[in-house]
Each structure stands twice: as structure tokens, then as C-alpha cells.
Specification:
alpha/beta, globular
């Protein structure tokens, strides 16, 4: 790797690294990294940071990022030509002019819900993502005279365009670790499903596992599949989803519903461990609505008041007028005491100590004084019973929040559904398992031992963007199309529907979830576009379908497809509802929350999001154990000190980061 003068031979390095991104590629990088010539080169070129090279974890991470970045920026052009080429048009379409951008309305599926966006395209290549100003879920006031409304979006959506061009994306159909084809996969899948038709009941050994689903067309295809195979079961799981809020509504109202909050009309807001200003697909809309009531320079605007009780510092807590740091196990007693003080007839009195009692008394006075214009928001990570109390208080005491049927359409979802699937797999009842857009080997609860149960399934299929942990343990892996390469549809958090339309043909021949379901239904020749149009022709877009279809594509929203508000009545009852048990924990409490930049790990391969400083702490890249200054002083800990956290026989090492608040 060096010349006779002892310098790095760049030509030899390029030749050695031109083999792609497989195991041999990484071995070559590691061997190069261990040479004294390369270390001398680092010290010469990067004198301030070369010492970090001695950290083996940091070195390998650096190499991966350097390789990915260089490949995206043109390193491959210095060696062998890349196999996949994005070439300019020989005869471009009439409306395509160099330097003139084009704009397309579509949506990013995220956590089951859709984030409406407008994507800028230059010469057929997506280049920039912004919010859709025509969609109610992303339309915000700009304050500009010439353009009073704009589309808004968040960092995760903005950075999702990098996933389209990610060099680590899965590129080929794989069968038992060997390259295969879509046609061969369809033959194998069809043979398996023929065997399931002979079962009694038909499809008794067939299971479908997805993330949360709000797509009307995908739901339609899944219902068709379950009708064809009545013995089959559909499971949905999201480690950071809204299942607790919907389950809480089922406890409170006897029906699966989700709340729609109008923060722009709320005078008083109480948050029970909810980071509603930044969490999830609704975060942008809610943050804008909340901020509208904080524009003190606007005449006639009465500022709202925000009460926050939370166990971990958040953006919402930082914006609070009255913030209460509280141990996580005290959130439920606080919700019960709040319900009692508001006169709902549920919950019970409790002495939670100072300063909780002072915060509670102030919040109750304000909520009662603004009945009809006050709201209580419960955090997604709280158990269903806390959500049930929050929903009951909104209806019985405040009368402000509206409820609609959930955007998610699965009737069997969450950890309980995943537990049922694992139980069936261990019992040998699952013969064919198809997993779409999920990675349960990585993010399923550790105590389920999902990988061990998965190994008992005779035929395993995975559709995903990456050849990830779940794909590695499956017989068949099918590369998924990025949402910017796909036809589909999705509901936003408010129930409105957006058509997902592609801006570019699949770079690696990826397939959509619609196309995989179609193959399971014996329609492997049907495209996602055909299936999408067929569904909406059945639904009816108006007397002139083509005109309505083109309008929906242009605006990015289907009119009159939003779910209507539902009438609710509180049915929450049962023993123990009036009892408040105040836990007296001994020792530390630990709270796990999704990362504000990469979520539950879904976006861990996105370098832009990894480089994005996390709110409040400004940390980037790795995780840290956040503790309060008082805890750090009591235990004698300092920033970046590595500690071991143990819980129920499992442990993890993490660096300490002291987080005031």
C-alpha cells in the first residue's frame, strides 16, 4: 500500500477498495487502518483529531462513514465504473429543462402515519423535501405578505432523502444468502401458499407481520388476503408507536379512537410526560398551533399556559410555564389525583408531597377556570390506564378534545400481538411468516427471544430497505422500494389521505408492500400503480375519476377522505379506579425513550440524522445515560464516565451525560 518512498500508494488503495461494500471491502479497510503509514498520514493531515484513531470502535465507525461518504461523492469514479448508473436523458421529456426544478406532492410513511411533503426534483432526481402547504397536517402560517401559508416539516423527514441514495440499501433478492430474482421468489412463495390452501382452516400456518398500517390500499389487500386464508393472522408491531393511547381510549370509551388536539384554541394545556411539540408525525402541526398562541405581538392574542410533568427533559418541558420534574412511577398517581380534583368521579385524593401538590393545585385551578378551552395530553410511553384517565378527563371535565377512528387499521397490534406471534412460532403453528417493513430481530423486546422463535418457522420472508438483522435470519429477503420510488397511499395523523407517488424509478429494482401482497394474492404481474387506482376507483373519488385522481396527485390530499369525529361516552369503570397507590421506589428509575434523531433505530444509517445535535443535550452519534446533576453528585460521576446499568439480569454499558432538569 506504499510507494518506495514510504508514502501511501493512492492508486493501489483505490484498486483494493473498488470491490464494493461486502466483507472483503471492510477487511481491506481494516487492514489499511492498521498500517503505520496510514496512521502517519492521519497525524499529518488531521493533527488535532488523530489521537481518536486509537479507539478501535471509533476507528471502524469512522471507516464506515468515510467509505459511504466517499462513495456517494465520487470515489468510485476514480476506479472501476459503478454497476448502477444514473445517466442523463438522451432525449429529455418536453417539460424537463436543465436547471428548472419540478415539484411533486407525496407523503413519507412514518410510524404508520403519513407526513405530507412536496419534493423538488432536478432532471428526474429528487433533491429536496419540504412540507405540503396544501395539506392540513403540514400547512402553517408564514407571516409573509406575498405567501401567507407554507408547508412545514421536521428534520427526520428532511433527511429521509438521504435514504434514497444510501449505498447500504439492499439491492438484490436474496435466498439463503445467495442472489436470486423476483420471479424465483414468486414461484417459491406461490408453492408455499398452495400448501396453506390445503390446511384446515385454510392458511392456518400463515402469519403476516407488519409495522403499523394506515394505508387504505394496503389494508384493502390485507383484508383480501385474510378472506382468502381465513386461518391466517395479521400482527402489527411498532416499539415506539401510539398503541398505548389507542388502548387507553378503548378502556375509557369502549372503542378504538385517537385524539385530535387543537392547541391553537387551547388556553390551558397540561402535559403528563408528553413531548407533543416534537414527537411523531403530528409534532410539526402541534408545534405550530401551540406557537400561534405565543405570538404576543399579535393584537388580541391571549397567550396560553402550559403545565408539564415529566421525568426526562424535553422540548415541550423547556417551553412550559410550570414544569414539574417527577419520577416516572409517579405519573399514574398524579393522573388519578388530577382526575379526582377535576370532579370526574374517578381517581382519588393523594398526598404526593411538595412540590407536586403545589403544581397539581395550580393546574386544577387553571383547568377548571378554562373548561371547554383546556386539554390534557398524555405521553406515548405511558401505560394505557394513564391514557384512559387522560381521555376521561378531556371528555368529562374539559369537553374540548375531539376523537376520530385511528389512522392505523390493524385490529391486532402492539407488544401483546407480538407475544401471541412468538407463542405460535414456539408451538410450531407458524409455517409461513411474511414480514413487511419491520425489523423485529433488532427491536422486539429482549425477553421475547424473537430470534430463537423465528428459527422454528420453516419459510420466512422479509421485505425491507436494508439487509438487516431480520433479513439475515430469513430464507428470502426482497429489497423494498424507498417511498420516493413507490406508488401507494397513507393517512396522516388527522385521518386525511395522501397519494404516495414516485419521483424516480426504483434504483435497485425494489418492490413495494402493495406488490408483495399482490404476489401473495396471485397477482404478481400487477403494479402498485394499478392496485392503487383500482382501490380508489372502488372507493370513488367523484363523478369524474381521472380529473379527481389528477387533482389528488397535484394537491397531495384526497378531499372528503378524512375520518369523521366520533361521539364518545366514558365507560371507564372497575375496581381500583378510585384507589391511588403511591410507590416508594428505592434507588434509581430508568426510562427508555426513542432517540429524537434516529427514533427506535430505524434511521440509524442516516448520517445527517446521526450528525444532528440532539435537543437540549446537543449530543451527536452515540447514546448516553442522562442523569441529573444531583444524582451525579451523589454517585460521584462525571460526564463521559462509562457506567454499567443493570436491570432484571440484563446490563448495558453507557457513558454518563449530566442533563440539568
Amino acid at each position: 500500500m506504499t510507494t518506495q518512498s514510504g508514502q501511501l500508494d493512492l492508486a493501489a488503495i483505490r484498486e483494493r477498495l473498488s470491490g464494493g461494500s461486502g466483507p472483503a471491502f471492510w477487511r481491506s479497510l481494516d487492514e489499511l487502518a492498521c498500517t503505520p503509514e496510514f496512521e502517519e498520514f492521519l497525524h499529518r493531515e488531521f493533527p488535532d483529531n488523530a489521537s481518536e484513531w486509537h479507539d478501535p470502535v471509533g476507528r471502524r465507525t469512522f471507516l464506515k462513514l468515510m467509505a459511504a461518504s466517499l462513495s456517494m461523492m465520487g470515489l468510485a469514479g476514480c476506479g472501476k465504473a459503478p454497476t448502477e448508473k444514473i445517466v442523463p436523458y438522451v432525449h429529455p421529456p418536453e417539460q424537463l429543462l436543465p436547471g428548472k426544478p419540478m415539484y411533486y406532492a407525496t407523503a413519507m410513511p412514518r410510524g404508520g402515519a403519513g407526513v405530507p411533503v412536496v419534493v423538488t426534483s432536478h432532471m428526474g432526481r429528487p433533491t429536496k423535501i419540504e412540507g405540503n402547504e396544501k395539506h392540513p397536517a403540514s400547512r402553517v402560517e408564514s407571516g409573509l405578505r406575498d405567501r401567507p401559508e407554507l408547508g412545514a416539516t421536521d428534520a427526520i423527514t428532511q433527511a429521509s432523502i438521504l435514504g434514497l441514495y444510501d449505498p447500504d440499501r439492499s439491492r438484490t433478492v436474496m435466498n439463503a444468502g445467495q442472489i436470486s430474482t423476483w420471479a424465483e421468489f414468486v414461484l417459491a412463495l406461490t408453492a408455499q401458499l398452495e400448501g396453506q390452501r390445503a390446511r384446515n382452516p385454510r392458511g392456518a400456518g400463515l402469519r403476516l407481520l407488519t409495522g403499523p398500517v394506515s394505508s387504505p390500499t394496503l389494508s384493502w389487500l390485507i383484508r383480501r388476503l385474510l378472506n382468502d386464508y381465513p386461518g391466517a393472522k395479521w400482527h402489527a408491531y411498532d416499539p415506539a408507536g401510539d398503541e398505548n393511547a389507542i388502548a387507553g381510549a378503548a378502556l375509557a370509551f369502549g372503542a378504538r379512537l385517537q385524539p385530535i388536539y387543537r392547541f391553537d384554541q387551547a388556553d390551558v394545556i397540561v402535559s403528563l410526560d408528553a413531548d407533543f411539540l416534537s414527537d411523531g408525525p403530528a409534532g410539526v402541526r402541534y408545534a405550530h398551533d401551540f406557537a400561534r398562541r405565543r405570538k404576543l405581538y399579535d393584537a388580541g392574542v391571549q397567550p396560553n399556559r402550559l403545565y408539564v410533568a415529566e421525568s426526562t427533559p424535553t422540548i415541550t418541558g423547556a417551553a412550559a410555564d410550570h414544569r414539574l420534574p417527577i419520577r416516572p412511577e409517579l405519573i399514574e398517581p398524579l393522573a388519578r389525583a388530577l382526575a379526582h380534583e377535576l370532579g370526574t368521579g374517578i381517581g382519588g385524593p393523594a398526598d404526593l408531597g411538595e412540590p407536586v401538590n403545589r403544581w397539581l393545585a395550580a393546574a386544577v385551578r387553571d383547568l377548571k377556570a378554562h373548561k371547554g378551552r383546556a386539554v390534557i395530553v398524555t405521553g406515548a410511553g405511558q401505560p394505557p390506564i394513564v391514557h384512559a384517565f387522560g381521555h376521561a378527563m378531556n371528555v368529562l371535565a374539559l369537553g374540548f378534545t375531539s376523537y376520530v377512528p385511528p389512522a392505523l387499521t390493524s385490529s391486532d397490534e402492539g407488544v401483546a400481538s407480538l407475544q401471541a406471534l412468538v407463542k405460535d412460532m414456539r408451538a410450531g403453528s407458524v409455517e409461513t411468516l411474511v414480514m413487511i417493513g419491520c425489523n423485529p430481530v433488532y427491536n422486539a423486546p429482549a425477553d421475547l427471544a424473537f430470534p430463537d422463535a423465528l428459527a422454528k418457522v420453516p419459510f420466512r420472508v422479509h421485505l425491507g430497505l436494508y439487509d438487516d438483522e431480520t433479513a439475515f435470519q430469513c430464507h428470502w429477503h426482497v429489497p423494498a422500494a424507498h417511498y420516493l420510488e413507490s406508488w401507494g397511499d397513507v393517512r396522516a395523523f388527522d385521518g386525511s389521505v395522501t397519494i404516495i407517488q414516485p419521483l424516480i424509478a426504483p434504483l435497485y429494482g425494489g418492490k413495494t408492500d402493495l406488490e408483495l401482497l399482490a404476489a401473495m394474492l396471485g397477482m404478481a404481474d400487477r403494479s402498485g400503480y394499478d392496485l392503487l387506482r383500482e382501490h380508489w376507483q372502488k372507493e370513488g373519488l367523484g363523478p369524474d375519476f381521472e380529473r379527481s385522481w389528477q387533482q389528488a396527485l397535484h394537491d397531495g390530499v384526497i378531499p372528503d377522505a378524512r375520518k369523521r369525529p366520533a361521539g364518545v361516552g366514558v365507560v371507564l369503570s372497575g375496581p381500583g379506579l378510585g384507589q391511588v397507590v403511591i410507590p416508594r421506589p428505592d434507588g434509581l428509575s430508568i426510562v427508555f425513550k426513542p432517540d429524537p434523531c434516529v427514533g427506535d433505530g430505524e434511521f440509524a444509517n442516516n448520517a445527517w440524522l446521526q450528525e444532528l445535535p440532539k435537543p437540549l443535550t446537543t449530543l451527536t452519534w452515540d447514546n448516553a445515560a442522562l442523569i441529573s446533576p444531583a444524582t451525579a453528585e451523589r454517585l460521584g460521576l462525571a460526564n463521559e464516565e462509562v457506567v454499567r446499568l443493570s436491570y432484571k439480569g440484563r446490563s448495558v454499558n453507557a457513558p454518563i451525560w449530566i442533563a440539568p432538569g
